[in-house]
Amino acid sequence: MAHRQENLIALAGNPNCGKTTLFNAITGERRHVGNYPGITVEKKEGYCRVNGGQIQLVDLPGTYSLTAYSPEELVARNYLIQDRPDAVINIVDSSNLDRNLYLTVQLLELGIPVLIALNMIDMAAARGLEINAEELGRRLRLPVIPTVARTGRGKKELIEAAAQLVQKSPVWEPLSISYGPDIDPVLDKMEALIGSAGFLTDSLPARWTALKYLEADGEVIRKGKEKDPVLSGKLEELAEQVSQHLQKTLDSYPEAIIADHRYGFISALLKEGVVKQSHKADRLYLSDQLDRVLTNRFFGPVLMMLIIYAVYKFTFTYSKVPVGWLEAGFSELGRFADSSLPPGPFKSLIISGVIDGVGGVLGFVPLILFMFFAIAILEDTGYLARVAYMLDRVFRTFGLHGSSVMAYIISGGIAGGCAVPGVLAARTLRSPRERLATLITAPFMNCGAKLPVFAMLIAAFFSAKEAQVMFLLTVLSWVAALLIAKLIRSTILRGPSTPFLLELPPYRLPTFKGLLIHTWERAWQYIRKAGTIILAISILFWALMSFPGLPETEKKIYDEQRASILAGGEAPQPTSPLKPPDRRPGQASSAANPGGGPDSQARLQEVDNEEAQAALKNSIAGRIGSGLTLITSVNGFDWRTNVALLSGIAAKEIIISTMGTAYSLGRSRRGEQIPLSGRLAADSSWTPLKALSLIIFIMLYAPCFATITCIIRESSWKWGLFSMVFNTLTAFIVSALVYRGGLWLGLG
Amino acid sequence: MAVIPLRKMAKGQKGTIHRVTASGEIGRRIRDMGLVPGTPFQVQGRAPLKDPVAIRLRNFTLALRNNESDFIEAEVEEV
C-alpha cells in the first residue's frame, strides 16, 4: 500500500457541504464514476496535477458520521481503513461548523492526516459569521483553507496545501479526547489491553477500536471476534459493565456520553476567537422565508404539484424531439440493413436483434438526460428534500419514503412516463428498505410503452368511455403500487422504517456546469452498463421468436400457395419466391411486381402473414406461449396473448406487433394498431372483461428488460429477478381475480 | 423551566435539548445530527400533514418524524 505511484487523497464531508462541486472543480475533465464493489454507492475518482506531480482523488460518499449504520458511512470508513489514503481533505460547511466538525473529530480519532476546506465561506460571511481559519488550524494542528467551491476560490491553495502535507508523508497520529470520568478509565484500560495484544492494530489505532467496542459498533466487533474471540469477549464484557453502570446512574448510554463529549470538544474548540457572530443568529434568512411559502400548509402542496408536473412535462415534452431523431435514425439504419444484407437468419439477427436492441437502449438516453437534468435541479437547489418532507407522511403509511414520489411520477404516475429513468430516480432515496420497495413497485405505473397497448384495447372494447377508462387505469396503477408496496414492506421487506432525519439544506442556485456534470455522469453509467445487457437480452428474444422456424414441408406449402397466386394469370414475379419471414411492412408492396393486380398482392400478403403466424407459433416463444395456456386460461389468455406478453418483456410496445403477427395481420410497427383493434373487437372469443383482465395484467406484470437491468444496477441480481417473478405473479393473481370475478358476476 | 417531549412543542417555540432517550441506530443518528443535551433549538414548522417536524439548530434545519421526536425531551420556558 505504501508504494503507490502517485499520492492518493480522499475527499470526505457531510451531505450538502459542496463536496462534489469542489471535487469537480479540482479534477477538471479527468474523472471516472463507478460503484464501490457490491453496493450502489457511487465512487468517483479523478486526478489533478500540482507542482509537476499528479494526485489521485477519491470522492467518498457524503456522511454525517463514521458509524456503521448506513452503506455510505461504512463505505467511507472502510475505504479510509483499507486503502489508507495519504490524506483526507475534509470539506466542511462554514455556516454550520459544529455539526460538520463532528465528522472531522472522528476522522482525527482514526488518525488519518486531515486538512480542512472551510467551504462556502462566502455564505458564512453573508450570515454574519466570521471564522478565523488560522486559529482553527493552529488549535487542531492541521491546515485549514477557506474555499468557495462554486467559484473555485481557494482551490489552488487547498490542493497545494494537500500536496505539501502528503510530501512530508505524515504518520497517522490519532487524536485522543477525554470522554469524562465514566468512560475514560475503562477506555484507557481497553486501549492498554488492545495495544499489548496487538489486536487489530495493523490497521486501527487501539483507542479507536476501544471506542467502537464502547459504542457497540457491530462491524468492528464482528471483525474483532474473528481475530481474537477471547480478547473480543473481554472487551465486550468491559463495555457492557460501563453500559449497565451508566444506565443505572445516569440513565444514559456510552454512545450518548461519547457523542456529548465530541460535541463538547467542538464547542470548546470554536470558543474564544475562532467563530464570531456579528449579527443576530436567529434572523430569518432568505432560505427560511422561501420555506414559509414553499412548505406552507396550503401553498406548499399546490406548488409541489405544479413543480412535479413541470418536471414531468419538461422530461417528456422536450425529449420528444431527440427521441424522434434517434428513432428515425435507427429505422433508417434498419432499412439500410434490410436493403443491403442478403436475406436469411443473419439479416434477421442484425435487424430485429441488434439494431432494434441497441435502438431500444439508446432511445431512452434523451429521456434519461432530461429527467436527470430536472432532478439535478431539484436536488441541487435543495427542493427535493422539501418534497420528501411534505410527502413523507403519506408515503410512510405505505412503508415508503417521501422521496419515493419522484420515482413513481417519472415511471408513469402521470400516465406516459418511463420506468427506466423512474427506477434510476429512486437513487435519491437513502433508506435501503424503502428504496427496494420503491424499485419493485414503480414499474406498476403506466409508462409510455404500455399506453399504445392500452389504447388499442380500449379502442376495441371501451371506445365509448376512452378518457374515463384511461383515468381509471392511472388511479388503479397508483392504488396497486401503494398497496403492493405496503404488502412488500410488511412481509419480505418487513422492519421499522429507516429513521427519517433529513437535513433541509438552505436553497441554493445550482451552477449550470454542476448540473451538466451531474446529469452526464448518471446517463453515461446507464448507457455503458445497460447497453451490453440489453443487447444480449434483445438477441436472446430474437432467437426465441425466430427459432426453430417452420419445417421445410410447411414452408413448401406456403411457397406453393404463393406460386399458384402468381401463376394465376398474373405477370411473373421477378423476386425470389422464398421471401424471408422477417420482412417489414411496406417491403411487401415494393417487392411485389408492380404489374400484379391489387387482388393478387393482397393474397400474397395474406399468405406471408399466415406463414409468419405459423412460424411464430412454432418458435420457442410460441411453444412456451402455448404451454402457458394451461395456466393463463384462468385469466382468459390464449397462446397469442401469451406470446405477445412474453415478447412484451423485451419492450412493452412490442406486445402490439407480436399480437398482430399472431393474428396473421403481418408485422405492424408502432402506431399501426387500428387493424388489430378491429380484429379483436370482431373476435367473438374476446370480451370487454377479457380485455380488462389483459390490461391489468400488462399494467402489473414483469417490467421490461431495460427496467429490470436498471433494478439490477440499483440493487442486485436477486432483486432484479424478484421483480420479474413477483410482479408477474401479482399480475396473474389480480387479473385472474378480475376475470373470474367478472365471469361469476355474469359480465363475460 | 419544564421538560416536555419535542412532539408537544408548538411552531416557533424555542427550547434546549434535555435528553435523547434512544439507543442503537436511531439514537446514533439523532446524536450524529447534533441533537445532544444542552443544544438550543427552535421549532421551525411542521409539514402540511403535521408530520414530520422541522427544527432549526446549530445553524441548519433538520426534519424528523414525530416517531423520532418522541425520543427527544426538551427544556422550555414555562408558559
Kindly report how far apart the N and C termini of chain B lie: 9 Å
At CATH level 2, the architecture of chain B is Roll
Q: Helix tally of chain A?
A: 33
Helix content of chain A: 55-70%
The coarse overall form of chain B would be: globular
| Greatest interface and its participating residue counts | A-B, 46 and 37 residues
Evaluate the radius of gyration of chain B: 11 Å
Descriptors:
heterodimer, A: 748 residues, alpha/beta, Rossmann fold, Helix Hairpins, seven-stranded mixed β-sheet, 10 strands, elongated, B: 79 residues, alpha+beta, SH3 type barrels, six-stranded antiparallel β-sheet, 2 helices, 42% strand, globular
Explain what you see.
The complex is a heterodimer of chains A (748) and B (79). With 748 residues, chain A is an alpha/beta fold. Chain A has 33 helices and ten strands. In chain A, the strands form two sheets. Chain A has a seven-stranded mixed beta sheet, sandwiched between helices. Chain A has a two-stranded antiparallel sheet with strand order 7-9. Chain B is 16% helix and 42% strand. A six-stranded antiparallel beta sheet of chain B has the order 1-6-2-3-4-5. With 79 residues, chain B is an alpha+beta fold. Chain B is globular and about 35 Å long.
What is the gist of this entry?
The complex is a heterodimer of chains A (748) and B (79). Chain A is of the alpha/beta class and 748 residues long. Helices cover 62% and strands 7% of the residues of chain A.
What is the strand and helix layout of this fold?
The complex is a heterodimer of chains A (748) and B (79).
Chain A: E1 7-13, H1 19-27, E2 31-35, E3 42-50, E4 53-59, H2 71-83, E5 87-93, H3 97-110, E6 114-119, H4 121-126, E7 129-131, H5 133-140, E8 144-146, H6 155-167, H7 184-197, H8 206-214, H9 218-227, H10 229-249, H11 254-270, E9 275-277, H12 286-294, H13 299-318, H14 320-340, H15 345-363, H16 365-381, H17 383-397, H18 404-413, H19 419-425, H20 432-441, H21 450-461, H22 466-489, E10 501-504, H23 512-546, H24 552-567, H25 587-591, H26 598-618, H27 620-632, H28 639-648, H29 654-662, H30 674-682, H31 688-700, H32 705-714, H33 717-744
Parallel strand pairs in A: 1-4, 1-5, 5-6, 6-8
Antiparallel strand pairs in A: 2-3, 3-4, 7-9
Helix pairs in contact in A: 3-11, 7-8, 7-10, 9-10, 13-16, 14-15, 15-23, 16-23, 18-19, 19-32, 20-22, 20-33, 21-30, 21-31, 23-32, 24-26, 26-27, 27-28, 28-29, 31-33, 32-33
Chain B: E1 2-5, E2 14-20, H1 24-32, E3 40-46, E4 53-57, E5 60-64, H2 66-69, E6 72-76
Antiparallel strand pairs in B: 1-6, 2-3, 2-6, 3-4, 4-5
